[in-house]
Amino acid sequence: MIFPRHFSGLPGRRQQQGVALFVALIMLLIVTVLGLASMRATTLQERMSANMYDRSLAFQRSEAAMRAAENAITGSWRITDLGGVDCSPGTGVACPLTPANTFTANDATWIDVPAAHQVNTDLSPGTPQYHVDFVGTGPSESSYGVQDNADYANYGNAYAPDEVAYYRVTTRSSTPADADDRAIVVLQSTYRRAF
Q1: Is 168 exposed, middle or buried (0-12, 13-18, 19+ CB in 10 A)?
Q2: pTM to 2 decimals?
Q3: How far apart are CA 68 and CA 147, in angstroms?
Q4: % of the chain with per-residue pLDDT over 70
Q5: Residue 193: its pLDDT value, please?
Q6: Dihedral sign, CA of 144, 69, 183, 106?
Q7: What is the dihedral of CA 36, 39, 41, 45, to 10 degrees?
Q8: Following DSSP, what letter does each residue of the chain receive, concatenated?
Q9: For position 62, what pLDDT does the model report?
Q10: Does 9 score more than 80 pLDDT?
């Protein structure tokens, strides 16, 4: 004869209190939180990559403005022809490290870059600009042993010039008014030229 087994350890239907439903809700909550966190991280990464792309475009425009300023200085060494500021010794004009209105405004000393030097015009707003400060003249030798000018030995000159003109060129990717909450990149370089 076979006797039926009776398990007394299992709870009856009346003793269950919804534990399975509670566990399922907790698991659903954990999965939802993980999904929201991954969506937030993905959105943040997309914003960061868009900002880096915008900054890269602005950097290229500011570099193009630097080349335009160097071409203008190569064409004429006189600051009056360049439309910049003469803050060489003896003029009494202070030459700040960056123009006071670099990130705020526009004035006559900021020169628009000609169309031949502009890049990414359809991808970035505004017009790149440059500002030139004439900081004076001096010997062409430097403490780093870099005595060669752009025209020395490249165009058949036998020696570097004794005196050169020094310029500080500041460029920006666009005017602040035209930036429209886009990146503005400001670059600065020292340029010298025989006169």
Answers
A1: buried
A2: 0.69
A3: 24
A4: 80
A5: 86
A6: positive
A7: -170
A8: -PPPP---SS--GGG--SHHHHHHHHHHHHHHHHHHHHHHHHHHHHHHHHHHHHHHHHHHHHHHHHHHHHHHHHH---HHHHT-EE--TTS-----SS-TTTTT---TTSEEPPGGG---TTTS-S--EEEEEEEEEEES--TTS----TTBTTSSBSS--SEEEEEEEEEESS-HHHHTT----EEEEEEEEE-
A9: 92
A10: no
Q: What pLDDT, in 10s, does the model give residues 50-73?
A: 889 888 999 999 999 999 999 999
Handedness of CA 147, 151, 153, 154 (dihedral sign): positive
74 token code pair:
């190569």
Instruction: Return the pLDDT at 170.
Output: 94
- Taking only Cα atoms into account, the Rg of the chain, rounded to an integer number of angstroms, comes to 33
